[in-house]
Amino acid sequence: MEPAALAGTQSGTSHASALDLRFMVKRFGAVTAVNDVNLAFSAGEVHALLGENGAGKSTLMNLAAGFLAPDQGEIWVGGRQVRFGSPRDALAVGIGMVHQHFRLVDAFTVAENLAIGADDVSPRTSSRQLNKRADLIAEQFGMPVQSARLVGTLSVGEKQRVEILRTLSRGTRVLILDEPTAVLTPEESEGLCENLRQMAAQGTCIIFISHKLKEVLSVADRISVMRKGNLHATVPREGCDVVSLSRMMFDDVSDEFASVALTPYDGARSDVVVVEDLVCSDDRGAAALRGVSFTVRDHEVLGVVGVAGNGQQELEQVITGLRQADSGTVRIGGEPVRDVRSAMGAGLAHIPEDRMGSGLVGSQPIWRNAIMRNYRTAPVTQGGVIRAKVARAYAADLADRVDLSTRDVGVLVQHLSGGNAQKLLVGREFDGDRRAVVAVNPTQGLDVKAATTVRTRLLEARDRGLAVLLISADLDEVLTLSDRVVVIYEGRIVGEFTDAASHRDVIGRYMGGGHLSAESPGTSDSDSGATDDSD
Amino acid sequence: MTATDRAATPAARTRKGILPWRIERRPDPDRIGVYRLVAVLVGLAISLIVAPILSGVPVGDFYKAIWTGTIGTALGWSNVLTIAIPLTLAGLAAAIPYRLSLWNVGIDGQMLMGAWAATGVGLWLPNAPGPLLILVMIIAGLIAGALWIVIPTWARVAFGVSEVITTFLLNFVAVAWLVYWCTGPWRAPGVAGGIRAAQVPEQSWLPMLDIHGAQVNLGIVLVPLLPVAFWAYSRFTRRGYEVTMLGANPQAGGYAGMRVKRHLITAMLMGGAIAGLAGAINMLGTSHELSPGLTYNTGFNGLVVAVLAGANELGVLALSAVYSLLLAGGGSLGIIGVSSDLVFAIIGVTLVFGSLGEAYARLRLVRTTPRGASSPTAPPPSITPSLPGSTESEGAS
Fold first, then answer.
1. What are A74's strand-pairing partners?
2. Which residue, among A151, A184, A245, A119, has the nearest Cα to A196 in the 3D structure?
3. How far apart are CA B325 and CA A104, in angstroms?
4. What is the DSSP string of A398-434?
5. Chain B: closest CA distance from residue A524 (Å)
6. Does A361 contact B at CB distance below 8 Å?
7. Which residue in B6, B9, B396 is closest to A445 by CB distance?
8. In angstroms, rounded to a whole number, what is the distance separating the alpha carbons of residues B44 and B109?
9. Which of A54, A62, A321 is the closest to B387 by Cβ?
C-alpha cells in the first residue's frame, strides 16, 4: 500500500471524506482490474485519477458509482458504509458518474432531458415550467444551457453540459467524470475545466479520470496515479510536472519481460512498410494524423508509443486499409495500400487491439475463425464452395501448432480464454506468406504467460524477416521488443529513438507532450539517442 | 481451464439481495435458438389450452373445428398448404436481410408490387402460351419486389437511414398504387363489391396438384425447395460464409476485407425479390386477380417467423409450417362463431414467449458467494457492452 494513499484514508477519520474507498478489488476472469485500492476523496477538491488504458481507473470509479459490484472492499460515504446494488443507489447518497457516452434523448429538449427521472416533475408539468426549472438548475451550477433546444441539435460539449447538469441536479456531491475531455474540442475542454473548478469551490467533490497529463496538471488539486490495477501514488499538484507524472505512470521495467529479448540482427535491411506524409481525420472529422512518415524495414520491430488517443488508432486503420487517408500513401513491399484486401494481398498481417471486437467472431466456431484470411482461395474454397473438411483440417493443424487449449475446432471462440483467443488470432495472421505485421496492444488483458507467448511470436516473426509495427500503450513492452521507437503525439511523430530502453525518461516526457516545453532535449546525456523529426 | 468453462465469465450487472443468488447476464450465450423454439412451443401449448376456455364455445367444438380446418380433412390440408406457400416465402424475404440485422418490414408492399407487375404482364399479353406467360409474370414479380426495396436500401447504405421506417411506409404507398390500378386502368369490368382488377388470363393460373386429395397450386414445390436452397447456400458457399461472419460481427467482416455494403445491398434486394415472388405466386395460384388486400398481413407473419427462427432458413420452413396450421385452424374457427382474430392473439403470445426464451438464454442464476480462484483463465472481454459509456475497457479485452 502506498503511503500517500494511506494518508488519504487517515485524513478521512478526522473529518468524514466525501467518498472513501477501502480495499477495493475487482477481477474480470483472470485479470485483476482493481487490486486492493484505498483512496479517499474530500469535498471541495478536484481529484484527478491518472493512468494508462487498462490501469483500472474507470473500473474503480464504476465500482464507486454502483455500475459494477466490487469483489471485495468497502465504500464509505460521509462516515457511513454503503453498498450499491445499482447506480441509482449511488445517486441516492450523492455519487454520480458521467460517462463518455451520454445517456440523453436526442428527440427531447434540454429541459425535458433534465426532467427525466426527477422527483419534482410530473407528467402534467408544462413545458414552460420545465424550461424555467432547467434555467434554475443551469444558473445554480453556473453552466448555461438553452433549455428549449432539442438535445439532438447540440454540440458534443453542450450535450456533456446537459449530462453533467442532470447528474448534479440529483443532489450529487461527488461528481465522477470519465475522460470528459476525450470528446471535446480544446476550447470546450478549457470551459469545462473552468466549470469544474467553480463547482469544487462550492463544495462538490470532482473526480476527473484522464490520461492527459497537461490537463490533469491544470485542473486537479490532488492527483492519484494508477498502474495495472494498483494505486501507485496520490500526490498534491504542487511540485508535479509532466516529467514526474509520466515517470509515475510508466515506472521501471518489470521482470515480466525477462524471458523475451531482442537478438541483434546484423544483416542488411530494406524498407518494407513505407508510410509517407499521412494526413487523416477521425470519425468526428477532427485532424487525427497531421503528416506522419516513417518506414519499417525487414527484420525490424518499430515501436510506436504514445498516450492513447494521439492518432494511433487512425494510423493502424490507414495502414491496414480500414480507413482512407485524406492524403499521403502507405506502401507495403512497394505495393500501395488502397483497402483491406490490397493490404492483405501485399502480405500484411494485422493483430487488432480489440481481438473479440474485430479480429475474431466469438459466436462462431474455431474453424470458421481460422480460415478468415484464406477462405477466398483454394484449397479452402473451390468453385465458390467452402470445403468444410479441408477448413477443419487446416484449423486443427493451426490449433496444434499454436498449442490451443482445445483441439476441437467446433468450439465457439467466445469460450476460449483471452490468451487462447489471441494465440488463434496471431497464429492465423502469421500463417502463410507475410511480409509485415501491424500489432496493436497485442497483450492487453492477457495474463503474464499468455503475454509472453504473444511477444515471443512477434519476435519470431521479426527474426524470420517480417517488418513488425508494434503500436502499444504499454511502454515497457515497446521498449523491450523494439529495434527502434517513435513517439506519436497529437498526430505527429515527435521523436525517434534507437536504443530506446536507456531513454525511457525522455520518451515518457515526449509522450506527455514534454518535447514542447522550454526544457530542451540534450541537457542530459540520456538524450543523445534522440533525433527530433522536424514537422 | 476448459473451453466451455462458463463459470469463469464475469458478472456484468449484479443485484444484491437477501437470497444467496443473483441474476447475471450471460455475456456469450449459445443455443439461443433452442431456448427460443422450446419457448414458442410452450407458448403455443398454453394458448391452445387457454384459448378454447376464453372462446365461449364448447371446448370439444373448438378443437374439432381446428382439427377439421387443418389436418383432419383434405380441405383442411388444402388450406394449410395454400397458406404455407406465401408465408414461407415471406419468412425467407424477412430472414435473408435479418441475417445481417436488417429489418424488411415492407414485405406486404413488395408482395403487392410483385403481384401488380405479374398482373400487368398477364393483362398485356392475354394470348401468350401458358408456361411462357407464367415464367414472364413470375420474373416480373421478382423484379418488381426487388425494385420496391431499392430506395430503402440506398437510403440505408448511403446515408444510414433506418430501413425499418422506409420499408414499412412503402407498404402504404403500394396499397395506394394498387387501389389506383384496381379502380382505374385494370378495373374488373361490370363487377360490384371490392376493389379488384380484372382476372389474369386463364392459361396463366398455376396448375393445381392433388396430394392425397388435398388441392394446392404448383407454388407448393417452392415451400421446401427455396428454404433448403438458401440454407445450403449460406452454409456451404464462400459468400454464405461471409454473410455468416458478417452477421455475427460486422467489424470482423470489415477487418477480413469482406465487402460489407455489397452484402447489405444483396440481402435487401434478395428479400424484396422473394417477397415479390410470393406476391406473384399468391395471385397466380389462388385469387387470379389483383387486389390491395391480397396479402392478408402475410408479410408481418413472415417477419414473426423469421425473427423466431433466428433467421435460420430451415427454422423458417419449420415455423412457417406451424403458423400455417395455426392460421388455417383460425380460419375454420370463424365458421363456429369464434373470431379468427384469436389466431393473431395466439401468434402474439408465441412471439412474446419466443422473446422471453431468448432473454432467458441470456441470463443465469449464480451464487453470490465469492468464486475465488476456481476460475483461472477466463476470457475477460464482453463486460464492456453492458457498461454505458466505458469505451476504455479497463482490464478487459
1. A22
2. A184
3. 45
4. HHHHTT-S---TTSBGGGS-HHHHHHHHHHHHHSSS-
5. 36
6. yes
7. B396
8. 29
9. A62
User: Which residues in A lie closer than 8 A to residue B9 (C-beta atoms)?
Assistant: 29
The DSSP code for B369 is: S
Q: Please report, for residues A54, A208, A489, the alpha-carbon distance to residue A215 in angstroms, rounded to integers and kept in the order given.
A: 19, 10, 15
Same domain? For A381 and A315 the reply is no
Question: Is there a contact between A31 and B397 if contact means CB atoms under 8 Å apart?
Answer: no
Cβ pair B241:A31 closer than 8 A? no
Which of the four pLDDT bands, split at 50, 70 and 90, describes residue B19?
low
Question: Into how many domains does chain A fold?
Answer: 3
- Reply yes or no: is the peptide bond before residue A379 cis, omega within 30 of 0: yes
Distances, alpha carbon B240 to alpha carbons A303, A365, A372, A384, B95, in Å: 39, 15, 13, 10, 14
Q: Is the dihedral of CA A480, A483, A489, A490 positive or negative?
A: negative
Residue type present at position A181: T
Inter-chain residue contact B396 with A179, CB threshold 8 Å: no
Q: Which residues of chain A have pLDDT under 50?
A: 1-14, 253, 518-535
Q: Are residues A503 and A376 in the same domain?
A: no
Confidence band of B382 (pLDDT split at 50, 70, 90):
very low
Q: Give B-chain residues touching A100 at CB under 8 angstroms.
A: 389-392
B244:A53 CB<8 A: no
The predicted model gives B267-283 an average pLDDT of 97
Contacts of B213 (CB under 8 A, 6+ apart): B74, B77
Q: What is the DSSP letter of B6?
A: G
- Grid cell for residue B192: 360490384
pLDDT at B361 over 90: no
Tell me, what's the pLDDT at B261?
A: 93
CB contact under 8 A, A29 and B16: no
Question: Are the beta carbons of B395 and A381 separated by less than 8 Å?
Answer: no
Residue B383 in this model has a pLDDT that exceeds 70: no
Mean pLDDT confidence for B355-370:
73
**Residue B18 counted as domain residue:** no
The CA angle B36-B40-B41, to the nearest 5 degrees, is 120
Cβ proximity of B105 and B124 under 8 Å: no
Instruction: Please identify among residues 47-86 of chain B the ones whose CB lies closer than 8 Å to any CB of chain A.
Output: none
B 256-285 residues with CB below 8 A of A? 256-257
> What confidence tens digit (pLDDT) does each residue in B118-144 have?
999 999 999 999 999 999 999 999 999
pLDDT exceeds 70 at position B223: yes
- Structural domain including A397 reads 359-432
Are residues A447 and A343 both part of a single domain?
A: yes
CB contact under 8 A, A31 and B380: yes
Mutate to test the interface with B, among A31, A282, A441 (most CBs of B within 10 A): A31
The answer to whether A267 and A299 have CB atoms below 8 angstroms apart is yes
* B378 contacts A29? CB cut-off 8 A: yes
Pairing outcome for strands A484-489 and A300-305: parallel
Using CB atoms, pick whichever of A344, A386, A417 lies closest to residue B257.
A344
From the CA of B253, how many Å to the nearest CA of chain A?
A: 8
Q: The C-alpha cell of B117 is what? A: 407487375
Q: Is residue A520 in some structural domain?
A: yes
Would residue A98 count as lying in a domain?
A: no
CB pairs under 8 A between A and B: 200
How many independent structural domains does chain B possess? 1
Task: Tell me what ipTM this predicted complex has.
Answer: 0.79
Residue A439 lies in a domain: yes
Residue A230 maps to a domain: no
- State which residues form the domain around B295: 86-203+222-301
| Interchain CB distance below 8 Å, B395 and A359 | no
Give CA–CA dist A250/A305, Å, rounded.
12
